[in-house]
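Final report, Chapter 2: Outcomes

The project's central promise was a pipeline that accepts a single protein chain and returns its three-dimensional structure in a standardized token representation, suitable for archiving and comparison. That pipeline is now operational. To close this chapter, we reproduce one record exactly as it appears in the project archive, with the input sequence first and the structure output second.
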Amino acid sequence: MAFLIPRAEEQRQLAAPVNACAELLDVRIFLLHGEALKVDVTSDLQEIETLQTNMGIGRDGSHITYQFEHVLTAQDLDGTDALKVQVNLGVLFGFPDESDPKGAVSEESLVAFGYTTAQLAAHPYLRSAVADVTSKLGFPQVTLGLLKS
């Protein structure tokens, strides 16, 4: 099941001034934590159907950093919480300084860029981290759905 970016077309339009000049420099995992809540899971886990994302934005000179925090709980087939995974990701973009006319963008544009382009850049790392930590905890591997706009 794919996760959808809410109001994606509107967000892309708002993000256009940032999209015009932003350059993806790096994606990193800042925190990866897995916790087994139930140790006797012998069957597949339920598909994770909702994705809650908290986003933070930092701007420093010619860089914009987006931080995405995710806490996911997977349930076994009887609906009992089986495992919890926490992943914090950072996405770094090069972007003109605020003193440069191209770098003078609204906070609304920066936020919209985060919910579209930056989140799309981070999502494959989130999927990989969740799949990796769930299997290393001894659970059936959990593969998150794609993120679509």
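Archive annotation: The first helix runs from residue 8 to 19.
This record, like all others produced under the grant, will remain available to the consortium after the project formally closes.
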